[in-house]
Amino acid sequence: MEKTTIIGIAGGTGSGKSTVVRKIVEALPPDYVAVVPLDSYYNDTTDLTDEERKAINFDHPDAFDWKLLIKHINELRNGHACEQPTYSYLLSNRLPETIHVEPKPVIIVEGIMALSNKKLRDMMDLKVFVDCDPDERLIRNIERDTIDRGRTVSMVVDRYLKVLKPMHEQFIEPTKRYANLIIPQGGENVKGIAILCKYIEGLTPSI
């Protein structure tokens, strides 16, 4: 198997990371990319009470099972499939189901803190930070959380001010300095994404 290209894509919640990932997947040959979302690797909270689960700060590095994620990325890099966990925001816990992920020439690790863990970062061939105006991110959070996660607008705004904004400033924004490439305006930056896709094609000579 040829060398696997590992790409990290980080950025604040609602910055447009998923759009950037989708455009990369669409630009490369079919079945060429495996996407590993950081959101699937929140810690298993089976041992916690409901109250303790509700108190989890999902925007802190300690909320993630880095050991398992790094193990799985290593497995994929070495040509072995892995069983990616699935996570429910409604239950604040892992689900019994896993997702079977096959090794591919390009592995994308996508999530708010994809660049925050040094061990994981050191495995990456390319590190990308998707940048976006805070107001835009708040609007997207409101749209997503009211539709997908059953929250009211006031709940989302309150959480943004008390948790998301300070955590973003403390843990996510500083990882921008590790990025090889910063994409402003997130998924709307057509030219930036096109340049990124061309660069990835260059990293994978078998295309």
Provide an overview of this structure.
With 207 residues, this protein is an alpha/beta fold. Helix content is 39%, strand content 19%. A five-stranded parallel β-sheet has the order 2-5-1-6-7, sandwiched between helices. A two-stranded antiparallel ribbon has the order 3-4. A hairpin with a 4-residue loop joins strand 3 and strand 4. The longest helix has 20 residues. 32% of the residues are buried.
Write a brief structural summary.
The chain is α/β, with parallel strands linked by helices and 207 residues long. The protein contains 7 helices and 7 strands, in the order E-H-E-H-H-E-E-E-H-E-H-H-E-H.
Q: Rounded to an integer, what's the Rg over CA atoms? A: 17 Å
Class computed from helices, strands and strand pairing: alpha/beta
Strand order of the largest sheet: 2-5-1-6-7
Distance between the termini: 14 Å
Which stretches of 5+ consecutive residues score pLDDT under 50? none
Provide keyphrases for this structure.
207 residues; two-stranded antiparallel ribbon; alpha/beta; 7 helices; 5-stranded parallel beta sheet
List the helices and strands and how they pair.
Layout: E1 5-10, H1 17-27, E2 33-37, H2 50-54, H3 66-77, E3 82-88, E4 93-101, E5 106-110, H4 118-121, E6 126-130, H5 134-148, H6 153-172, E7 181-183, H7 190-203
Parallel strand pairs: 1-5, 1-6, 2-5, 6-7
Antiparallel strand pairs: 3-4
Helix pairs in contact: 1-7, 5-6
